[in-house]
Amino acid sequence: MTAIEILKNMSAPALRDVLTALQAEGAGLGHFNVSDQVLLKAVVAAAAETKLPVLVGASEGERDFFGAHQLAAIVKSSRQESGLPIFLNADHTHSLEKAVEAANAGFDAVTIDFSAFPFDQNVAHTKETVQAIKAINPAILAEGEIGDIGTGSEIKETVQGGRLSTPEEARQFVEATGIDVLAPAVGNMHGMLKSMVQGKAKKHLDLERIAQIKQAAGVFLTLHGGSGTDDGHFRKAIAAGINIIHINTELRVAWRESLDESLSRDSNEVVPYKILGPVVDSVKQVVSSRLRLFHDHMATSEAVGSVA
């Protein structure tokens, strides 16, 4: 029985259940950021089209724009109406206050990001936040981040980040903080270079480092800054131990390009749903293609032998 079949037989699988099932099958969970209902509709439509689990993400800025409680309510409604395993993560949360807000709103996971601090301070702040959100909801998944992959899901001129995570650092961080999920720096980077948007360049990951960190940490791993990554490296990263893959900039690029086309198609059109309908479809295609790639079991299986 496949992971998807197992999940279908569960009345209301928790996010941990989904990650455990997908890991056993060698598949990854797609995480897609949203900042408005157009993007959210596209992600939900892709989940419905592919019949695959999906993790909706929203950073602090995206939550401030959408409304944390409003976003949580819509995702909950979409999950109930569709019957699909659709979950919600408070992405890149930089304060205890914002993490508590997300937990109280009903988010399934919180990415606690104090990675800009020195290691000891990162540990202390992360541990405090983990304890606070677990007191609100013991089932919520707490994610911590180490290393440097830059900031902002935007189009950039130069490469950001650079300080990669080490297996020993990962082990110490997990043991000290009690996190459920770890986000390491393994050659990934937030945002995309212009050459990546044009399809002339791709991100490449340190696959051996991923495997070593997975073994040392012993928890679920998240790949942030996935946009623009080589497809083969995605599959090999999953084989090496990555469980969640974040895609944001690719969606924003599809949103912007499709919106420009829709607006230029008829300068007299003023009906929002007629203008935005094609935008939803365009973003949905990106999400669907990524979801299928992350669940390409045959390709992932073949990649296992190529990690070392």
3D structure, described in words:
- The protein is of the alpha/beta class.
- Helices cover 54% and strands 14% of the residues.
- It has 14 helices and 10 strands.
- The strands form 2 sheets. Strands 1-2-3-4-5-7-9-10 form an 8-stranded parallel β-barrel, surrounded by 11 helices. Strands 6-8 form a two-stranded parallel sheet.
- Helix 7 (119-136) links the parallel strand 4 and strand 5 (141-145).
- The longest helix is centred in the C-terminal third of the chain and has 23 residues, at 272-294.
- The relative contact order is 0.14.
- Residues 153-157, 190-195 and 298-308 have low confidence and may be disordered.
Strand order of the largest sheet: 1-2-3-4-5-7-9-10
Determine Rg (CA atoms, Å): 18 Å
Helix-strand string: HHEHEHHEHEHEEHEEHHEHEHHH
Shape: globular
**What distance separates the N and C termini?**
28 Å
The beta-strand count equals 10
State which percent range the strand residues make up.
Answer: 5-15%
Mean pLDDT score: 87
Layout: helices, strands, pairs:
Elements (H helix, E strand, L loop, with lengths): L2 H6 L6 H11 L3 E5 L3 H14 L3 E5 L1 H7 L1 H15 L3 E8 L2 H10 L3 E4 L6 H18 L4 E5 L9 E2 L10 H11 L3 E3 L8 E2 H4 L9 H11 L2 E4 L7 H10 L1 E6 L1 H17 L6 H23 L2 H8 L4
Parallel strand pairs: 1-2, 1-10, 2-3, 3-4, 4-5, 5-7, 6-8, 7-9, 9-10
Helix pairs in contact: 3-13, 6-7, 8-10, 10-11, 11-14, 12-13
Question: What structural keywords apply?
Answer:
10 strands; eight-stranded parallel barrel; alpha/beta; 14 helices; two-stranded parallel sheet; disordered C terminus; 308 residues
